[in-house]
């Protein structure tokens, strides 16, 4: 059904909301977090509904997450990097130094 991309060995660690998650070099953040059982990557700005990756090819934007301090990044199109810090995105993204209100 699905073929792993990159190494099949868990060799690096990423962090989601401070939780250490083992990752495989070369895989997408979305694949790694789904395998780890993460229940949502973001909540919507209007209703607060929880969202998880849907398309895994960059079209639906349900995988938006904060990566190393930058919000609204697509987890399905971004590869894991050792020590990467992710944060669940609640509502709209924030950009340091920019007031989006
Ligand atoms: S899962 Fe659809 S854009 Fe990432």
Number of domains: 1
The whole-angstrom Rg is 13 Å
CATH architecture: Roll
Bound molecules: FE2/S2 (inorganic) cluster
CATH superfamily: 2Fe-2S iron-sulphur cluster binding domain, sarcosine oxidase, alpha subunit, N-terminal domain
Provide the β-strand percentage band.
25-35%
What's the total helix number?
Answer: 1
Helix share, percent: under 10%
Class computed from helices, strands and strand pairing? mainly beta
Kindly identify the CATH topology.
Answer: Ubiquitin-like (UB roll)
Spatial strand order of the main sheet: 2-1-7-5-6
How many strands? 8
Main sheet characteristics? 5 strands, mixed
CATH class: Alpha Beta
Bulk shape: globular
What distinguishing features does this structure have?
101 residues; Ubiquitin-like (UB roll); 1 helix; mainly beta; binds FE2/S2 (inorganic) cluster; three-stranded mixed beta sheet; five-stranded mixed beta sheet
Describe this structure in words.
With 101 residues, this protein is mainly beta. It has one helix spanning 29-35; strands at residues 10-16, 19-24, 42-43, 50-51, 64-67, 70-74, 85-87, 89-90. The strands form two sheets. A five-stranded mixed sheet has the order 2-1-7-5-6, with helices on one face. Strands 4-3-8 form a three-stranded mixed sheet, with no helix packed on it. 26% of the residues are buried. The model has no long low-confidence stretch (mean pLDDT 90).
Walk me through the topology.
Layout: E1 10-16, E2 19-24, H1 29-35, E3 42-43, E4 50-51, E5 64-67, E6 70-74, E7 85-87, E8 89-90
Parallel strand pairs: 1-7, 3-8
Antiparallel strand pairs: 1-2, 3-4, 5-6, 5-7
The structure holds FE2/S2 (inorganic) cluster.
């Amino acid at each position: 059904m699905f073929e792993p991309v990159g190494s099949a060995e868990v060799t690096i660690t990423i962090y989601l909301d401070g939780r250490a998650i083992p990752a495989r070099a070369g895989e997408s953040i979305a694949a790694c977090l789904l395998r780890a059982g993460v229940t949502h990557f973001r909540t919507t700005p209007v209703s607060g509904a929880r969202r998880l990756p849907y398309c895994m090819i960059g079209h639906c934007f349900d995988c938006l997450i904060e990566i190393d301090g930058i919000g609204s990044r697509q987890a399905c199109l971004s590869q894991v990097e050792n020590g990467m810090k992710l944060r669940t995105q609640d509502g709209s993204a924030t950009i340091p130094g920019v007031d989006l209100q």
